[in-house]
Amino acid sequence: MLKVQLLSHTAQPERIVACAAKMCYSSAGADDILDGLTDEKTAGFLDMLNNLGHESPFEHASFTFAVEGVSRTLLAQLTRHRIASYSVKSQRYVNETEFSHVTPPEIEDLPEAREVFMNAMRQDRENYEKLFKLLFDKHFDRLIKDGEPEKQARVKAEKSANEDARYVLPNACETKLIVTMNVRSLWNFFELRCCNRAQWEIRALAEEMLKLCRAAAPGLFKSAGPGCVSGPCPEGRMSCGKITEVRKKYAEQKGY
Fold first, then answer.
1. Is the predicted pLDDT of residue 27 greater than 70, yes or no?
2. Is 193 tagged catalytic?
3. Which of the ends of the chain has fewer CB neighbours closer than 10 A, N or C?
């Protein structure tokens, strides 16, 4: 099951962004600029930056999330957002003999499809376990013959076995990660991944992340969401055709 936590973010992110932007147009130092930034002035300055399209100051604030219960399919999509930092559970160092998996809702809702899917997961586990054992025994025997102490030989053999046995693991295999993005990158992420046309799993992740961001810094994320929230649908002929519903949904969420 998807679990998203906001672990940390830049202290006073809205004031930091406003300070960075004001410094571009002021001879004053950071301390003097911050002293003059009331909540009202900060909010007004952020609105002005948004209206001007001056987005680079928003890169000075970042947010760090812990994400669990997602698939390797989602991971492949998420890491396409390159202006971010990722730390992901390694299938090379972590044994996956009893791996958990993510089941797509469309498969879960269709009994015949679910049966095929669950059989595939069981077979993948069996194949992984068989491969791991074969490879572990091979590496362990070699290391022992080379004079490696038993404890060290087991550790090294397990790592080597994990490394190659993982090739049979499915995209559904569950993983966990920590990701950090700056505000500008998050806007882009939400614009693309909150869209109705985004794949269901990464859309669910994006929506949860946006809720957490709005709770922590509403001034920075009040206009965030899919592209059609603040402009025409960027999908053109591929539009979902539900722009009114989408705008209503995200307008209601601004209470977070």
1. no
2. yes
3. N
